[in-house]
Amino acid sequence: MTLMQALFWQPFAEFDFMRRALVACLALALTCGPLGTLLVLRRMSLVGDAMAHALLPGAAVGYLLAGLSLGAMSAGAFVAALLVALLAGVVARFTPQREDASFAAFYLIALAAGVLLIARQGGSVDLMHVLFGSVLAVDDASLKLVAGVSSVSLLLLAVLWRPIVFEACDGLFMRTVSRRSAAVHYLFLALVVGNLVAGFQALGTLMAVGLLMLPATAARFWVRSLEALALLAAGIAAFSAWAGLLLSYHASLPSGPAIVLVAGGVYVLSLALGRHGSLRAAWRPQAVAAPAAAWLGGATAVGVVALVLAGLPTPAQAQAAAASAERPRVVASFSILADMAREVGGDAVEVSSLVGPGGDAHVYEPTPAAVRQLAAAQLVVVNGLRFEGWIDRLVAASGYRGPVLVATTGIRPRMVYGAPDPHAWHDPANARVYIENLRVALGRLVPAQAAAIDARAAHYLQRLDAQDQRLRALLAQVPAEQRRAITSHDAFGYLAAAYGIRLASVQGWTTAAEPSAADLARLMRQMKAEQTRALFLENTGNPRMMQRVAQDTGAVIGGTLYADALSPPGTAADSYLKLLNHNLTTLIAAWQPPVARTP
Predict the structure, then answer these.
(1) How far is CA 42 from each of CA 185, 196, 197, 327, rounded to the nearest angstrom?
(2) Same domain, 96 and 200
(3) Do 116 and 212 fall into the same domain?
(4) Tell me: the pLDDT tens digits for 334-353?
(5) Which of 41-50, 259-268, 354-363 has the lowest mean pLDDT?
(6) Residue 405 domain-assigned (yes or no)
(7) Can you give the residue range of the structural domain that contains 503?
(8) What is the first-listed, main subcellular location in coarse terms (predicted)?
(9) Side-chain half-sphere of 239: how many Cα atoms within 13 Å?
(10) CB atoms < 10 A from the CB of 24, how many?
(11) Domain match, 16 and 161 both
(12) What is the pTM of this model?
């Protein structure tokens, strides 16, 4: 296989998830080209963005009623966005307000309603991942939906192309000569909504707008005729999908943003070098522009090749990968599980993590590298309890058919807001269950090393018990009434219950949620009533809210706690045992004088 084949074709030939993603994006490109072109001609470019936001409340309602049901979420999203489009159109036709203003009003109402619906549902992380990008997890149902919408859209565009074009170019003339002008207008909006609904299955709502509008705006710098514009826009969208997936694969970038970034790159080049209305045509003579265009094109090509080659392994990395291929590969969903698996498995297995140190599993965006990890694994280890809302779709996309160990099996979870709290590892008693589950699963995976794995697990448990006893002895020196603190993320309930600590949080259920004014007011009143003066940040959270609370209450930021991820190697919490030790000693230090004696 040549280098060119390895770079540009091998990923699609080898991996089914890459082929599915490409087919879905190509199907979208066929209709996004003409629809985006018509939106640009109607000066409704931002309307596409508005309708993409309007999908949110409908998809949220579908999720609340039926969970991650493709049909329910797609139907809800279609109805919500179409309702916004119809209401905006009605207001524009029967009042003096322009259509863009009415679209802005209704889409903002829909967006706010969608955010509130998501905030009211504790397990909203799954929905956020579906809405904001899952091109690597396109399954059969999603692919059929995209293909069906694209086919129907192309058929309707072919049959009704002339009236749709007349209505787009001169709506007043169309209303004068035909009574069907309104019907054609609403049909066009319905086609846009339908393709956005199909697009969020592949790229997410926001990314789908990029594939709809960027190719169309780029095409206008090269051709003038309407048919040529539609064809070129579709071609640019298809190229962006293909090149973006390759960039995502080789450089290990999130696929949806990579696709839109390529489309954005084509737009910038078109803006600079296009034949009609570009910067080259407006500002520079042809003789000067030609060398500049050649230099810019060459620099762009070099940059793209450099990005692609950046993701290729070095010879040393390839040799190390070949050496580790002899051991069974274990893939853990996040860094804390990976550390436990390494401690129990030792050199009998090769352990990697999807979400690395410092990463937030709640808002993780999968990459092609993650799918390849799963495809090559012999065992996948997940936390469960709805912690990794993206994992099921990712496993399905990878084609992995091996065992999946749910590390929390056997643990009775605490309930928060009607949903299980997934952060069970913060209680050492639960950590023992994790270790036992890993011992059994790894022993089955490598039977020849079962005795050594049992010995490592027993030694690991001894170290955990010794640390637990030492931390309890330190904590006993702090009076029970002083063991109060506020954290930036509701992830330490198990830790508080295990060690007799009173912990409240600002940010509620997940790092994806924002507190309400009532939440903050209630928290501050509680702090004043209980004279709580210690605030703690979480390593993967946004510190601004906690800093605001500290300023308003006169409290002290006591340090950083590690909730959902380890710290980078060589730092304070780069293993599970060090994480547990860091969190407890940080809390205890904040409760020592003078903080503990602050009135």
Answers:
(1) 11, 18, 21, 60
(2) yes
(3) yes
(4) 999 999 999 999 999 999 99
(5) 41-50
(6) yes
(7) 480-597
(8) other
(9) 17
(10) 24
(11) yes
(12) 0.71
